[in-house]
Amino acid sequence: MLTELTIVGALKALESGETNAVELAEAHLRAIEALNPRLNAYVTLHAERTLDAARESDARKERGALEGIPLGLKDLFCTEGVRTTAGSKILGDFVPPYESTVTAKLKAAGAVSLGKLNLDEFAMGSTNSSSAHGPTINPWSPGNRKLVPGGSSGASAAAVAARLAPGTMATDTGGSIRQPAAFCGVAGIKPTYGRVSRWGIIAYASSLDQAGPMARTVEDCAILLREMAGHDAKDSTSADVPVPDFAAACGRSVKGMRIGVPAEYRLEGLSPEIARVWDQGLEWLKEAGAQIVPISLPHTKHALATYYIVAPAEASSNLARYDGVRYGLRVAGQGDGLNDLYERSRAAGFGAEVRRRILIGTYVLSAGYYEAYYLKAQKLRALIRRDFEQAWESCDAILTPATPTAAFALDDQPSDPVTMYLNDVFTVTANLAGIPGISVPAGLSAEGLPLGLQILGRPFEEETLFAAGAALERAANFSAKPGMVA
Amino acid sequence: MSLDAETVKRVARLARLRVEENEIPGLQAELNGILGWVEQLGAVDTEGVEPLAGGNPGGASLPWREDRVTGGGVVEKVLANAPDREGDYFGVPKVVE
């Protein structure tokens, strides 16, 4: 089965001539045709374009590092000539006249796009159900119960799990790669802030947003990240640092590595299943030669509240551009002035969660409240970063659960936004501190749903995450497959 | 502090979001729920802490580029997604009487 191949496996099969890019693309397009109506993972497909790119790849003499590999793209990456919606009605018909740096780099490396993947509207959410395209369904859903795939990159994770792509592009602002990866039983990494260019990725919270890959193995993530990463003059926050051979780090021993265990992450009421898989992960790393070190990250309990000031503030500013004038949805009444046009277009184009965050962001930045909320949150952010800086004095990486629970049902979602925000409790600190984090499938719940572990590391030390992540992967030997699979 | 209905309307106006009268009580309750929760930060001592604005680890300084024209001349691309176009301009409702 060509859809079973990992990226490493597909590259070998392409190299040896066992298969070609067109066959690989066709196999995945067939799988998408069969399963996508149930999963709602892809929101835009362009089979002809995909096959043309595959044919060009097969004909290419000079082979790129991802030559012939089919990939799915979160619909937050602008793709020239291909509709890009951010999961929002306000960009329902938007066709970018340019290509994001990440997707341009993948294309240059020979990758073939299968299409665009669903997401929470403007990447705001943890369930993929705030999308204007409707929810994506987790392929692990048992019987007729519909589980969420996590979010915001829910479909990027679901597609990889269901074998509708060997790898996908995703983004992570507060956990949007790591949480869905855990919910769907796949691997995903949020790199260090600045590792990957944000140019051409529709912005949510610019100081937190970072793109990363998802795939079925840690090594596949490493291969994808190498092609995505690097300095880009078009993103002034992209770091001008060398990009190492991340895949080589996957074979590195963890002997002597000091793994921190933050006391504050052992939340009151943490599910015993999550606690068990966490302890198991520590045991595995210890058996592989790592040393377990208790650490403290004292400001952890304030991270979510900090995030829900900083991210909406940045979002309210970033999303001011959707005004119904230059692109996107326009709604105007008879005799309306310009302000009415703005207000009507934005009210009609944005969904409930996006509106909520814009209003919170506008409020915390407004005169009289800026210091009490926004400035205070920035100070907390500094303290959260300092917690990590102090932790690195005694450890090289930190092991935590990726999520507080396994995937939950679409109709069991908490209606209260604050309860919903708790999904990101383990992941959000990495975005605030700018550090990298990887999520690796580590086991199954009693219900047979995947559970993930997260490893956090020092800035620009993704190699440590790949080494420890691959060690966990080898020990966990996660081979379970979702019920809905190509 | 808790938002009253007038403040919700004012914030919505600032954000250029049309909010119907019947949506105000629901929004007010949601926003107050979120604000009540984030107010926990007030209890943390941040005396003398420098606020952190950016995401770059180590506060990497942002580079400057040479001050020269690097793009332009792509009118058709710029206008390609315009909801209303008049010649080489975006069309909008009349703003001056």
From TrEMBL, chain A:
Annotated organism of origin: Sabulicella glaciei
Keywords: ATP-binding, Ligase, Nucleotide-binding, Protein biosynthesis
EC number: 6.3.5.7
Name the record gives this protein: Glutamyl-tRNA(Gln) amidotransferase subunit A
Role this protein plays: Allows the formation of correctly charged Gln-tRNA(Gln) through the transamidation of misacylated Glu-tRNA(Gln) in organisms which lack glutaminyl-tRNA synthetase. The reaction takes place in the presence of glutamine and ATP through an activated gamma-phospho-Glu-tRNA(Gln).
PANTHER family: GLUTAMYL-TRNA(GLN) AMIDOTRANSFERASE SUBUNIT A (PTHR11895:SF151), TRANSAMIDASE (PTHR11895)
Reactions that this protein is recorded to catalyse: L-glutamyl-tRNA(Gln) + L-glutamine + ATP + H2O = L-glutaminyl-tRNA(Gln) + L-glutamate + ADP + phosphate + H(+)
InterPro entries: Amidase (IPR000120), Amidase_dom (IPR023631), AS_sf (IPR036928), GatA (IPR004412)
One Pfam family recorded for the sequence: Amidase
Keyword Protein biosynthesis: yes
Residues at the active site: K74, S152, S176
SUPFAM superfamilies: Amidase signature (AS) enzymes
Amidase domain: residues covered: 23-465
Stated family: Belongs to the amidase family. GatA subfamily.
Superkingdom in the source lineage: Bacteria
Principal EC category: ligase
Subunit field text: Heterotrimer of A, B and C subunits.
UniProtKB/TrEMBL annotation, chain B:
Catalytic reactions of this protein: L-glutamyl-tRNA(Gln) + L-glutamine + ATP + H2O = L-glutaminyl-tRNA(Gln) + L-glutamate + ADP + phosphate + H(+); L-aspartyl-tRNA(Asn) + L-glutamine + ATP + H2O = L-asparaginyl-tRNA(Asn) + L-glutamate + ADP + phosphate + 2 H(+)
Keywords carried by this UniProt record: ATP-binding, Ligase, Nucleotide-binding, Protein biosynthesis
Domain of life: Bacteria
Pfam family for this entry, one: GatC
Keyword Oxidoreductase attributed: no
Signal peptide (UniProt feature, chain positions): none
EC number: 6.3.5.-
Job of this protein: Allows the formation of correctly charged Asn-tRNA(Asn) or Gln-tRNA(Gln) through the transamidation of misacylated Asp-tRNA(Asn) or Glu-tRNA(Gln) in organisms which lack either or both of asparaginyl-tRNA or glutaminyl-tRNA synthetases. The reaction takes place in the presence of glutamine and ATP through an activated phospho-Asp-tRNA(Asn) or phospho-Glu-tRNA(Gln).
NCBIfam families the UniProt entry points to: gatC
Assembly: Heterotrimer of A, B and C subunits.
Similarity-based family: Belongs to the GatC family.
HAMAP family: GatC
Record-given protein name: Aspartyl/glutamyl-tRNA(Asn/Gln) amidotransferase subunit C
The species this protein was found in: Sabulicella glaciei
Lineage of origin: Bacteria, Pseudomonadati, Pseudomonadota, Alphaproteobacteria, Acetobacterales
